[in-house]
Amino acid sequence: MPANSGQHKKRLIPWIVAILAVVVLAWLLHNRITFDWTTLGRQLRSISLGYVFTGVALLYVGYWLRSWRWAILLTPVRRVRPLELLGPQLIGFTAVMLIGRIADLVRPYLIARRLGLPVATQLAIYSVERAFDVGAAAVLFSFTLAVAPHNLPHHVLYVRAGALSLAATFALVAFAVSLRFAGATVAELSRRLLTPLSADLANRVNDRIVDFCKGLHILSTWREFFTASAISLLMWLGIACGYLLSARAFTSEPILAHFSFTATMLIVAVSLGGSMLQLPILGWFTQTGVLATALHGFFNVPWETATACGAVMLFVTTLDILPIGLIAARLQGITLREAVAESGAKQHNLS
What transmembrane ranges does the database entry give (predicted)? Predict the structure, then answer.
């Protein structure tokens, strides 16, 4: 009983922090910002739906690309069609949107259950998939900022950010290579260094590194590696275009109607940072606030328009999955909360 009580308290901490942050933010906005709700409604009603629907279509293509990439990473174990993995992808991301980051492992769990494969194998692939995501997003972000047009405001800042991001990307690649050849040593060293700070954290980091190393060893050919890399870049290009189309949907706001791809990548980076702590439902509003603040702060978009644009970006890039994800879960007889609980139990048994 005490253990369960302690776990319950740990789960409440992020909620308490997030609620306090929202309250403080709302107080600051109320006292420092003049916000016209009528203007917000007018901006939402005036958006170009063609841009929005095109962005939604691109993101759905992205989910199919994720399934294709997972199928490629799974090739040394079993050959499967991407379509077989699409359902678990949709259900897994829907669970994250509704339940939070605790549902991240639903996808590998559902794929393992669907294919009758060990969960450990899918966790290894999940770790490598995340690495491909980080690498592709970093390459796209770095290259776009490094070649930013000279007439863009804060051009020097963009170029420096691009150069730093590119250097960080190369460092990540070097780290991945070291794990490929000396993963066990790196995992053990990390565990020893972190144990004085927190034994639980040390074990978690050790487990993640081990999973990642297993995933790296699953990649048996250069062809698989380059194909997965190309799919990752294409997928993240589609995600960036989803943000760009969401901005350009506001045709009555000149800044957004002519929004550049370089500016979009900066918003994508901010969005990724804001989504690190994904709380159920409440996270939708905090993410909209993060996007609105970035649009207003970096590009001087009026607060009402920036908030409306942030809400549309959130819908196009994440929330649009909810209807089809819930339908897929219903058709497959899957309850999201049960899937989250079972995936967590499987991970606990493996640790």
Answer: 12-29, 49-66, 161-182, 225-249, 255-274, 305-329
Is the CB of residue 291 less than 8 Å from the CB of residue 272?
no
Count of beta carbons in the 10 Å neighbourhood of residue 235: 24
Residue 45: what residue type?
A: R
The answer to whether residue 253 scores a pLDDT higher than 80 is: yes
Q: Tokens 């690649």 belong to which residue? A: 173
Distance of CA 210 to the CA centre of its chain: 22
- Dihedral (Cα; 50, 55, 57, 60), 10-degree rounding: -160
Rounded distance between C-alpha atoms, residue 267 and residue 30, angstroms: 24
Q: Which pLDDT band holds residue 13 (cuts at 50, 70, 90)?
A: low
Question: What are the extents of the domains in the chain?
Answer: 117-219
Q: Read out DSSP for 191-260?
A: HHHHTTT-HHHHHHHHHHHHHHHHHHHH--SHHHHHHHHHHHHHHHHHHHHHHHHHHHT-TTSHHHHT--
Please give the average per-residue pLDDT across 9-17, as a whole number: 56
Q: Backbone phi, then psi, for 235, in 5-degree steps?
A: -65, -45
CA distance linking residue 69 with residue 65, whole number of Å: 6
C-beta of residue 321 within 8 angstroms of C-beta of residue 96: no
CB 125, CB 218: distance < 8 Å: yes
